Amino acid sequence: MSILVSGDTRLLVQGITGREGQFHTAQMVEYGTRVVAGVTPGGAGREVAGVPVYNTVREAVESTGANTSIVYVPAPFAPDAVYEAAASGIGLIVVITERIPALDELNMYEYVRRKGSRMIGPNCPGLTTPGEAKVGIIPGNIHKRGPVGIVSRSGTLTYEAVAALTARGIGQSTVVGIGGDPIVGTSFLEVLEMFERDPETEAVVLIGEIGGEAEEEAAGYIGEMSKPVVGFIAGRTAPPGRRMGHAGAIISGGRGTAEEKVRALEAAGASVARSPSEIAELAERALSRR
Amino acid sequence: MSILVSGDTRLLVQGITGREGQFHTAQMVEYGTRVVAGVTPGGAGREVAGVPVYNTVREAVESTGANTSIVYVPAPFAPDAVYEAAASGIGLIVVITERIPALDELNMYEYVRRKGSRMIGPNCPGLTTPGEAKVGIIPGNIHKRGPVGIVSRSGTLTYEAVAALTARGIGQSTVVGIGGDPIVGTSFLEVLEMFERDPETEAVVLIGEIGGEAEEEAAGYIGEMSKPVVGFIAGRTAPPGRRMGHAGAIISGGRGTAEEKVRALEAAGASVARSPSEIAELAERALSRR
Amino acid sequence: MNLHEYQTREILRRHGIPVPPDQVASTPEEAESAAAAIGGEVVIKAQVHAGGRGKAGGVKLANSPVGAREAAEQILGMQIKGLPVNKVLVAPAADITNEMYLGFILDRANKTVTLMASAAGGVDIEEVAERTPEKIVRAQADPVIGFQPYQARDVAYELGLSGRHVRQFADIAMRLYDVFLENDASLLEINPLAIVASGDLQALDAKMVVDDNSLFRHPELAAMEDHTQLAPSEVEAARAGITFIKLDGDIGCMVNGAGLAMATMDTVKLYGGEPANFLDIGGGASAEQVTAALNIILADPKVRAVLINIFGGITRCDVVARGILEGLSAVERRVPMVVRLVGTNEEEGRRILEGAQLPTASSLSEAAERVVRIARGEETPAPTPGA
Amino acid sequence: MNLHEYQTREILRRHGIPVPPDQVASTPEEAESAAAAIGGEVVIKAQVHAGGRGKAGGVKLANSPVGAREAAEQILGMQIKGLPVNKVLVAPAADITNEMYLGFILDRANKTVTLMASAAGGVDIEEVAERTPEKIVRAQADPVIGFQPYQARDVAYELGLSGRHVRQFADIAMRLYDVFLENDASLLEINPLAIVASGDLQALDAKMVVDDNSLFRHPELAAMEDHTQLAPSEVEAARAGITFIKLDGDIGCMVNGAGLAMATMDTVKLYGGEPANFLDIGGGASAEQVTAALNIILADPKVRAVLINIFGGITRCDVVARGILEGLSAVERRVPMVVRLVGTNEEEGRRILEGAQLPTASSLSEAAERVVRIARGEETPAPTPGA
User: Fold this and answer.
1) Whole-number average pLDDT of chain C
2) Cβ contacts (< 8 Å) between B87 and chain D: which residues?
C-alpha cells in the first residue's frame, strides 16, 4: 500500500508543453508513472514524451480517465488551472508552481475542498510512491520502496532526507512534499493521518521549518499515533523577522521558532534530528524499536 | 403541527426601530408571536412594543435564545443583516425587505445555505401559523387554523387567498410567502416537501405568477405528493416583455407564461383556479375528496 | 433599466473589450460629420429600447457622409414599436467573416451568473434558445471564485474557435463578466461578436439591462436612463414610487401588490373587460401615491371606469381611502369607480369612502364584474364624488 | 515587500479612510516648509522599514517650522537598525483622546483574512498578542462573501465603542479590508487608530506589507519599493532571481532550496561555524544565477570560506558546476570553497568540477565540518581555481 499516488494513478500534466512541463513529464514517464494526458490550451494534437496533449482538462479526462493532475503552469495562470482540474473531477491536484499570490491560494484551497478534491502544494516538489508513481520533481533515483513515510514542507531538504534513508537501506512508502507557502492544500496533520492508516508505513519522517504553526498542529496528533515519528525542523539559526526564501518561513512576533516546534514535537513523543544526516539514523532506530 | 414557525419560534426582529419594524413588531406581539428581541446597531437599551433591543444579533441570541429572525432592514443594508443572522446561528431568516439587488441575493442565498440556515424571501410577506406565530406582515385577523397549507410568490394575493379560505370556514396549517424576486431563499418545491411531511396539512394551495420556472419545478414534485394541490397563476393577461412589478414577473423569450405554468400544474394533477375567488372553492372540493 | 447600444459600447470599451469606434448623432448633420470623421462605409443604427430595429428600418448602410445624413434623416424621428428614435449611432461598416453570440445572464434557476454563447450570432438569441437549444453553449460562474478563464476557453473550443480566437474570446468573456458584476447587470450581451476582416474578434453590437434594484449604488447608470423611451405616465409613476404599465384596454386598475394587480387584471378579463393598465401602488402607499396613481390612470383618455382593489397589510385602508378622496378632489376628470378595500383598518377605510358617497365592493369578483358592466355601459354607476 | 508609512497613508486616504494631511520631506528645508504649510504643532517621523523608530529617536515633535527643520536635521541620515532614513513624514501633531489598533492579516491557520483589533493601540501589537492575547479581538472574513459590516460593528462594540464611533470604526474597517484585498497585502494595520480632539476617528500611523508573489499584478506597488531599505547585495540578488539575506558570520553559503539552505546554515552552526548569509539560488538556477550568487557572497569581505550545497532536482548539477566555474573566472576574490553536489546529473557535475581541480564532498555533514575547519584556519584548503 501507499498513500495518495500509486500504480492506479492516471496522471494529467497541466502546462505540459512548457519547459518544466516537458522536462518533468519525460522524467515521470521514464520513472514508470502512468502519465495519460497533458493539457495546454491550443496544444491539442501535440505529444510530449509520447503523452497526448489536449486543449482542456475536461477533454483530457473524458478521453483518458485521468484521476490526478500535476500543475506546472506559471503563477499568474495556475489558479485557473487548478479550478479547471477540480471542476473536471480530478481527485488529486499537485501544484508545483511557486510564487502564487496568497489570496489566490485562499481561493484555490476553498474551491478544491468544496469540489471534494485534494490539493497538494502549491510550491511543492510533489510526491513519490517508489516503484509505482513519481508525481512531481523529486529525483526518481534516490528512492527505494520501504516502510518509512515522509512528509515535508521543504523541497531539496526532502531529497536530502530521502537520499539519506535510501543510503542506509531504508525504503519509503510514500514521500509527500506539502509545499512551503503559508497557505497549502494539504497539511502535515492530514498526511500523518493517512500514514497512520496506511498498513505499509511503519514510521514517519516529518520535515518542518520555521514559521506558522503547522508543526505544532501536527504535534497535537503525533501523540495519538501508533507509529513512531522522526522530526526535523530547518531554521534553528534563522534570525527573526527575515523571510527565509519560502513565503511562509519567517519568525514573527516571537512565534514560529524552531525551538518551539522542536519542543512541541518532542513533547508529543517524536524524536527530533539536529541535522539532516541524523534523520536516517533516528528513523532506523525508530523502526528497530517497533 | 405546522411548518417553519410555531409556538416554539423565538423571534428576533432585525431593524426593529425603523418605521416598519416598529409597526409590525407591535402587530406580531399582539398576534401572540413570541418576539424575544430586536436588533438595531446603536439601539441597545431601548424597547419596542415591550421587546428589548440589542446592538448585535450575537448579543440578542446569547441573551434571549432567539432561533428565528425577521428582517425589515432597508435594501442597502439587508444583506449584512442576513449574514449576521446566519453567522449567529439563527436557523430561519425571513426577509421582508424589497428591492435588494439580485447579485446580493445570490450571495445571501449561498451564504445562508452554507451556514445550514434557511432564508424565506427576500421581498416576501412572511409566514403565519394561525394561532401560534405570525412572522411577517400578513394581516393576522384573516387567518383561521386548519388543514390547508399555502405557499405563494405573491404578497397581497396571498392575503386574498387566505381571506377567501377563512371566509369559507377553511383554516390554514401554515401560510408561507416565499417572495417575488428572481432569487429567493426557499422555493415552492421545498415548501411543498415540508407540507407533504406535515401531518396537519391535508391540502396545499400554491399561488404562482408569470416569470421563471419555479412553478414548473414544483409541478415535477406535485405528481409525487399524497396530498391534493390547488394552484393559481397570476398574469394570464400580462403582455410579454414587460416586467409586472416584481423583479421576477416577466415573460421573456416566450417562457414563463401563465399558460405554460397552468399546463404544468394541471399535468401534475393539481386543480388550477381561474380567479382568486375560485381558489377557496377548489380547496374545499380537494379536502372533501380526501 | 435598459441602456442604449451606444452607452453599453462605451462601457465595454472602457473595460478593454474591442468595440469599433463610433459616434452618436442627434441630427442628420451630426451623422454626416460623424461619418466623415469615421471614413469609409458606415452603418447608422437607431438607438431605441426595442428589439427588431433592423426589420423596422432602423439600421442603414451609407457609403458617404451625405449618404449617412440621408439615412439619419430617415431614421431620426421614426417610431419603432411605439418608441421614438432620438439618436443614431454611426459606426464603421464591418467586413464580417463570422458572427457569434456572447452574453451573461442572471440565472435564476441555477442561482448564479451564466454565460450563454452561440456560434450563430447576429440573430435573436431567444429564438435560437427556443428552436435549437443545443446550439447554445452555457457555463455557470462559481459562487465563490466567479467565472474563470478555463470556462471561457472551454466555451470557445465548443464554438469551434481555435488559435488566437480562443485567447481573444476568453479575454472578452472575462472582461464582459467583470462588466456584468460591476454594473449589477441582469443581462449583458454582445451580438454579434464578430470575426472581422483583420481576423480579430470585435463587439459589433451590445446590450445591457441593469438591475433596477441596484441603482442606488450606481448613480452614474441611473443618470444614463433615457426617459424618452418610456411612456410619460410610466416616468411619472416611477417618480412617485408606483409601478405602472400602460395597456390597451379601457378599465383602469389601481391595486396594491404586483401579484394581486395581475390577478385583478386577469379577473377583469375573465368577466370580459379589458384592463387599461397594470398599476401597483406598492407596499406602504401614502395618500400622495394614491393621488399620483389616480392622476396617471385618468390621464389615459381611453379609461372609462376604474377598479381600485386594495388588500391592506402594510398598506392601511384608511390611508388609501383618504388618498382616493384627496386624489379625486385634485383631478378634474370624472369616471365611474368601483372600490374594494379589505384588510388592515378596513372598517375605517370603508367608513371614509362611504361618508363621501363612494360605494365599495367586498369581493374581487363582485368588483370586477361590476366595473366591466359599467365600462360596457350595462350599468349606470353612482356619480363619483370630487372637487 | 514593505511600504513606507507615507505611501500607505496615501493609499488609505485614496480609499476614503480619514488620515490627517501630511507631507514628505527629504531635506530639513522641505520639512520646514511642510511644517509651515501644515501649521501648528507637527510631528516629524522617520520613514524607515524598521520597527521601534520612536525609541530610536526617529519621531519628534516640533512647535514651529524652524523646530521642524531642526528635528528633520537630526532624523534625516540616521540609521535605525542599520537602515538609512532618507525621508521624513511631517504631519499635524494630533490631540489624542484614545488609541486603538486595527489591522488585517493573512491568517494561515484559519486560511482566510482576519481582522485584529485592540483597545490598546499605539503599542507593539505583537507584544500585546504575546502577553495579553485576550485583549485582542479577532474576526475572520468569510471565503465567499468576505468581511462584512456586522463583523466590524461587533468588533467595535467589543472594543467598548459606542454611537458614531461604531459607525466610523465599521466604515474604516470595511475600507481597510478593501485596501487589503486590492493590494494583495499580507499585513495592513492602522496603529494607532485614534479618537482625536474633534471626537472623530483618525488613522495616525499605517503600515502595509504586500505579498511579493503578487507584484506581477501590481506594477504600481512594485514601483514604490524603496531599495535603500535593503542591503545592496539583497537588491542585486533579487534582480538575479536569488533569495539572499546577509547575516553576521564568515562562512558564505550557496544552496538550492530554502529549506535546505536553512538546514545547511544550521549544520554549519552545529559544527561551530557562523553562516555569513542565507542564499537560495532557486529551483532552476542558471549558470548566470550561480555566477551572480558567487559575486554576492564574495562581495562580503568577512567571508572566509564558501560552502556550496546543491541537491539537484529541477536544478541540474552539470549546469551548477559550469556556473561555479564561470563565476569563479569572473570574480577576482579567491576564498576556499567546499562543494557538495548531488542529484540530477550528479556525475557530470562532479566531473566538471574535478576537472577544474575543485574538490567535492559527498555528504552535507562532511562538507559543513570541512568548511568550518577551513574558516577557522584548522585546515589548509586546496587552492581555488579561477581566472
Assistant:
1) 91
2) 142, 150-151
Model confidence over B48-80: pLDDT tens digits?
999 999 999 999 999 999 999 999 999 999 999
How many CB pairs (< 8 A) connect C and D?
3
Assess contact for C348 and C318: CB atoms under 8 A: yes
B:90-109 residues touching chain D, CB 8 A cutoff: 107
Q: Is the Cβ pair A42, C144 closer than 8 Å?
A: no
Please state the pTM of the whole predicted model: 0.93
Q: Given the C-alpha cell 449617412, which residue does it identify?
A: C68
**C168, pLDDT greater than 50:** yes
Chain-centroid distance of CA D211 in Å reads 11
Contact with chain D for residue B27, Cβ under 8 A: no
Q: Rounded to 10 degrees, what is the CA torsion of A179, A181, A183, A185?
A: -20
Residue range(s) of every CATH 3.40.50.261 domain in chain A: 138-289
* Residue in chain A nearest D129 by alpha carbon: A253
Average pLDDT, chain B: 94
Neighbours of chain D (3+ CB pairs under 8 A): A, B, C
Q: With contact defined as beta carbons under 8 Å apart, do B83 and D148 qualify?
A: yes
Closest among A207, A226, A219 to A280, alpha carbons compared: A207
Contact assessment for residue C282 and residue B246, using Cβ atoms and an 8 Å cutoff: no
**Catalytic machinery residues of C:** 101, 189
The catalytic residue positions of B are: 246
Quickly list DSSP for B138-152: S-GGG--EEEEEEEE
One-letter amino acid of C386? G
Please list the residues that pair with C42 across neighbouring strands.
Answer: C62, C92
User: What CATH homologous superfamily does B11-120 map to?
Assistant: NAD(P)-binding Rossmann-like Domain (3.40.50.720)
Q: What is the CA radius of gyration of chain D?
A: 25
Residues of C with CB under 8 A from a CB of D: 143-144
Does residue D259 contact residue A207 with C-beta atoms inside 8 Å?
Answer: yes
The DSSP code for C26 is: S
Three-class SS state of B77 = helix
List, in sequence order, every residue forming a beta bridge with D201; answer none if it has no partner: D195
| ipTM confidence score | 0.92
Q: Is residue D172 within 8 Å of residue D203, measured between CB atoms?
A: yes
- Residue numbers in chain D where pLDDT is lower than 50: 387
- Domains of chain C, CATH where assigned: 21-92 (3.30.1490.20), 96-222 (3.30.470.20), 231-376 (3.40.50.261)
Render A100-118 in DSSP notation, one character per residue: --HHHHHHHHHHHHHTT-E
- According to DSSP, the residues that pair with B46 across neighbouring strands are none
Domain with CATH 3.40.50.720 in chain B: 11-120
Nine cell digits for residue C13: 470599451
- pLDDT digits over D191-241, tens only? 999 999 999 999 999 999 999 999 999 999 999 999 888 878 888 888 888
Chains touching chain B through at least 3 C-beta pairs below 8 angstroms are C, D
DSSP B137: S
What share of residues in chain A are helix, strand, coil (percent, to 5)?
35, 25, 40
The answer to whether B162 and B172 are in contact (CB under 8 A) is: yes
pLDDT in tens, D66-119: 999 999 999 998 999 888 999 999 999 988 999 999 999 999 889 999 999 999
Angular region, B134: left φ>0, alpha ψ -120 to 50, beta rest = beta
Residue of C nearest to B97 (CA): C283
Q: Cell for C337?
A: 369607480
What CATH architecture applies to the domain A138-289? 3-Layer(aba) Sandwich (3.40)
Strand, coil or helix: D236: helix
Q: Is C171 on the interface with A (CB under 8 A)?
A: no
Indicate which residues of D carry an active-site annotation. 101, 189
Helix ranges (DSSP H) in B9-136? 19-31, 57-64, 78-87, 102-114
Q: How far apart are the first and last CA of chain D?
A: 38
